Amino acid sequence: MSMTDETKRSQNPETDASPAEAAANDPLAAASAEKAELMAAVDELRDKYLRAVAETENVRKRAEREVAESRAYGSALLARDVLGVADNLTRALAAVDPEARATAEGTLKALLDGIDLTQRELRKALEKHGIRRLDPVGEKFDPNFHQAMFEVSDPDVAAGTIVEVMQTGYAIGDRVLRPALVVVAKGGAKPASASAPEPTAPATETGS
Prior knowledge:
Number of domains: 3
CATH architecture of the largest domain: Roll
Distance between the termini: 144 Å
Number of strands: 6
CATH superfamily of the largest domain: Head domain of nucleotide exchange factor GrpE
Helix content: 40-55%
CATH topology of the largest domain: Nucleotide Exchange Factor Grpe, Chain A, domain 2
């Protein structure tokens, strides 16, 4: 380095100072640097705040959804256990001949009436908790709620129509507790194609 360069550097000490030293020597530069640091800190805090708000909102929505599902489906486990009781009551009533039931007297009549009353009260209790029976005779087969056991030919109904329920199903809300076991119709015979009309012979004119 020449003497001229050294002389210039000694005459301009500010040009040799680092940015930090320059900022320390210049109040405006120091204030500007401090402002930049503060703005960066504010941006970071704002980002953390927005993230915290979003997470809090997600937690709130998740909690509300879980509470709603608990209210709607909380009785599902108990309902599955009770379905067997409902089935047994139905079987008990179905085992008695309708004629014998109609003419029943005394103890037998009281027993049958008690079973019937118990069955109706049980159904009311299930409906009170949003549990509905699936007894879809005459409805269109829906694999989401029904389970086809077999198909039968029935010319009187459309294909896919449920003609018999072998076991009643149950659902709570949009969830199936037990699908209904059903018999599905294949549908009636296809209509015979109409035969083409025979051509008519042209009328012959008779002389006058």
